[in-house]
Every structure is written in C-alpha cells, then in structure tokens.
Amino acid sequence: MAPFTVGDVIAERTLHLTRESLVRYAGASGDFNPIHYRDDVAAAVGLPGVLAHGMLTMGLASSVVLSALPADTRVIDYGVRFTKPVVVDAESGADVHVVAKVGAVEEGAARIDLTVKAAEATVLVKAQLRIAL
C-alpha cells in the first residue's frame, strides 16, 4: 500500500440518494421504520422529512474510502457520531458529500478522517476509519 501523508485527501465523492435507495436499503437491512419512507409519519413525529437510515449514511461514507484503496485493505476500526439527519426529498433526493483525509499515520495503521455533509450541513462528526498498513 502506498505511503500515507497526514493531510492528503485520498478520496472525495458525492453520492445521490433517492427514496428508492431508502426502500432498497430497508429491504437489505430489515429496518422498515416508516420515517424512512413515509412523509406523513416523519411529519407526525416532528421530523423535517423522510430520513436516510443512519447506518446507510455511515456505510456510504466508508465505501468512498474503501473504493479508493486496494481491495485487500483491512479496516481495523470505524466510528462516527450522527449529528444531523439526511433528509431525502421525494422529488430531488439528497446528495451526500464525503471527503476522506489522512488524519494520522502510526506504526501499522492509518487513521482516515471523514467529512460528511448533506445540504451543506455536517451529518457525521468524529467519523474516523482506521486501516491496517
């Protein structure tokens, strides 16, 4: 694996989510909470709209990093804090923008820091993925 330098951007991508994306994820994950596909239910519980699953957002963010690295890359640890929901509009969907930078390099591992935004808001903080070197 190529050497990493703190501060290097190793991946950047914008991923588009649609309501269909949410339905497909619900089927794969088994999470059929109606806040992920029904506007009326989301509004009734005070949400700004139908929300993407948190684990979907988290998975998309890590996929940006892993698709930029060799296929045999081993993830040691991955954690995030959810700060804001990703609201997925029925017509326009939602874009999730991910930037992955090298945050630290230590013996045998690198920490990749992720900046994850949707609609100009940071939706994940302390998003860090550690990979084996």
Q: Whole-number radius of gyration?
A: 16 Å
How much is the average pLDDT? 97
Extract low-pLDDT stretches. Answer: none
Biggest beta sheet attributes: 5 strands, antiparallel
Count of DSSP E strands?
5
- What's the number of helices? 3
Q: Estimate percent helicity.
A: 10-25%
Question: Secondary-structure element sequence?
Answer: EHHHEEEE
Q: Can you describe this structure in just a few lines?
A:
With 133 residues, the protein is α+β, with helices and mostly antiparallel strands.
What does this 3D model show about the protein?
It is a single chain. This protein has about 130 residues and is an alpha+beta fold. The chain contains three helices and five strands; from the N terminus they run βαααββββ. The chain has a five-stranded antiparallel sheet with strand order 1-3-4-5-2. Strand 4 (about 110-120) and strand 5 (about 120-130) form a beta hairpin. The longest helix has 14 residues, at about 55-65. The protein is elongated. The protein starts with 8 loop residues before the first strand and ends with a strand.
